[in-house]
Write a structure and sequence with these properties.
This protein has 521 residues and is an alpha+beta fold. It has 3 domains: 99 residues, OB fold (Dihydrolipoamide Acetyltransferase, E2P), CATH 2.40.50.140; 69 residues, no CATH class; 272 residues, OB fold (Dihydrolipoamide Acetyltransferase, E2P). 19% of the residues lie in helices and 31% in strands. Strands 5-6-3-2-1-4-7 form a 7-stranded mixed beta sheet. It has a 5-stranded mixed β-barrel with strand order 13-18-19-21-20. Strands 8, 9, 10 and 11 form a 4-stranded antiparallel beta sheet that branches. Strand 16 and strand 17 form a beta hairpin. The radius of gyration is 27 Å and the shape is globular. The C terminus is likely disordered.
């Protein structure tokens, strides 16, 4: 719970937890629509230290939160997600973006700072052309030479457009163009007159009844052909899958410099050394046992339930409901390098589990606590530093267009061991086998060790477990014994076969022993 916690600075919030508590002023808000995210409400928030950060609200939560977050007012925000800020036209220079949801608690704030928190940029700096075009800027000046409002076609629609000249106190001038409502506002202010404003879907039909279908049937040859369902040869199918899995090993080895300068969406095989762990992200999160998406603690429902539940109450944004079965999942952000350059890679659960050799649930010792100290990392994860791996990484649109500098690892080779991600196992705007996942969501296939919250609400502390790995006397160590409670195991557990490829095996309890055996060999 965050009740009673000290306020965090906006400059300090990171994705490794959701139970942040900040006090901010709403500087600006607007609504927009995109094909990927649908309708959203966006805000610019600032704290008393002058740090500004972009925040977003999904359509289903706009109704409640828009009434609470009024421009110019100070508010306390609790329980929200933090994700990378990417894309064009970013309203703040921060690397992070806040995601507000139904679990976010908004309350009044006692602090009142009458400041617009502007970050004004001189016109000369704009004219020099040295600014990053991905960021929006603040500028102030005197309006000169205002044109008449013109209506021009833009992407098949007519929009109002106004052009003017803006100058600063040094008489530096720059041309400006305003559209739609902004054009109306400026024209009205300058002329002192009143301005009055006035998916495609697919359909599948079996045996359709229509003239076109009748004509098609008549035109078919009368050869007695019928529909035959062909069964795949089991051995041939296994061989085909193995060849597909091994195909990436035939790719030419590329350098980190090559992927950073790629101009097309494709996958690259690289050989890199792990030099560190990006602790801004933590190393795990909790995934829904049903739909596999990230879950968050429903603090509002916990507080409203009498008597207060001993176990955490979880909410899944995909299922749109509270869930009881959750599982700790790996989400490792590693710093890597080769002889050409340095970069960051991200490994989700199905890949990370293979190179760590223990599940995230095992390392947490059954705890459901969020990360409080991101520097507290188990030795099994820290041991990756200094090791070298061959990765298959994907270069996507967000890298080429938006400058994202973290690459998703699709496959990893460790000696003779090849571990693969599942289709759709992705983080933010990751495209895999036609599956697209939006920014800020983790999708990791739940294959084993699904943890059901016990009736007694027992949640051992991960910090206790980690301290035992860092020198706490053996008498108090929890790392020297197995997880104290038996975790249920699903049938679809991943298993590394003798060929070094991950497959599905019904005997889930044999997979971990097999994995250790292959890794040691």
């Amino acid at each position: 719970m965050t009740i009673g916690c000290a306020f965090a600075k906006l400059a300090d919030v990171r994705p490794f937890k959701t139970t942040w508590k900040v006090r901010v002023k709403v500087i600006h808000s607007w609504r927009q629509y995109s094909g990927m995210s649908g309708e959203t409400m966006d805000l610019v928030l600032a704290d008393e230290h002058g740090t500004k950060m972009h925040a977003g609200i999904k359509k289903k939560d706009i109704g409640r939160l828009s009434k609470l977050l009024v421009v110019g007012e100070w508010k306390v925000l609790e329980n929200f997600q933090v994700s990378p800020a990417t894309g064009l036209f970013r309203p703040t220079p921060s690397n992070w973006k806040i995601g507000l949801s139904m679990n976010t608690i908004v309350t009044t704030c006692s602090i009142k700072v009458d400041d617009m928190f502007l970050s004004l940029v001189p016109i000369q700096t704009i004219l020099d052309g040295d600014l990053n075009h991905n960021f929006l800027i603040d500028v102030i000046g005197q309006v000169l030479d205002v044109s008449e409002i013109k209506t021009v076609p833009v992407l098949g629609r007519e929009k109002r457009k106004l052009e003017c000249v803006l100058r600063d106190i040094n008489d530096q001038r720059i041309n400006c163009c305003l559209w739609a409502g902004y054009a109306d506002q400026l024209y009205e202010a300058c002329s002192d007159m009143q301005v009055t404003n006035a998916f495609d879907a697919s359909k599948l039909i079996i045996n359709p009844i229509c003239e076109e279908a009748d004509a098609f049937r008549i035109g078919l040859p009368d050869d007695g052909a019928i529909v035959v369902i062909q069964e795949d040869d089991e051995e041939a199918e296994k061989q085909r899958i193995k060849e597909q899995e091994d195909a990436w090993l035939a790719l030419e080895m590329k350098s980190v410099y090559d992927i950073q300068n790629a101009t097309e969406i494709e996958k690259f095989r690289i050989s890199v050394k792990v030099t560190g762990i990006d602790t801004d992200w933590g190393w795990y999160y909790f995934g829904c046992g049903k739909c596999q998406f990230r879950v968050t603690k429903d603090l509002k429902k916990e507080g409203a339930t009498k008597p207060r539940p001993k176990a955490p109450v979880w909410y899944c944004d995909r299922c749109k409901s509270n869930v009881k079965t959750v599982e700790a999942k790996f989400k490792l952000h590693l710093l890597v390098e080769d002889d050409s350059a340095k970069t960051k890679v991200m490994l989700l659960d199905s890949v990370a589990y293979g190179i760590v050799d223990k599940t995230a649930s095992f390392l947490l010792n059954g705890s459901y606590d969020e990360i409080q100290d991101p520097e507290l990392i188990p030795d099994d994860v820290k041991s990756l530093v200094g090791k070298s791996f061959e990765f298959l990484v994907g270069v996507e649109k967000e890298h080429i267009v938006y400058g994202n500098d973290t690459y998703k690892v699709h496959k990893v080779k460790k000696g003779l061991l090849i571990l693969d991600t599942e289709s759709g196992d992705g983080p933010f705007i990751a495209i895999d086998n036609g599956s697209t996942i939006a920014s800020g969501e983790e999708l990791s296939v739940v294959k084993s060790n699904s943890q059901s919250i016990s009736d007694d609400g027992s949640t051992p502390s991960p910090k206790r477990d980690f301290e035992s790995m860092h020198g706490v006397p053996a008498g108090s160590s929890t790392s020297k014994k197995h997880c104290p409670k038996q975790l249920p195991t699903e049938a679809s557990r991943e298993l590394v076969n003798p060929d070094g490829l991950i497959s599905q095996h019904p005997e889930a309890n044999k997979s971990e022993a097999k994995l250790h055996q292959l890794t040691e060999n």
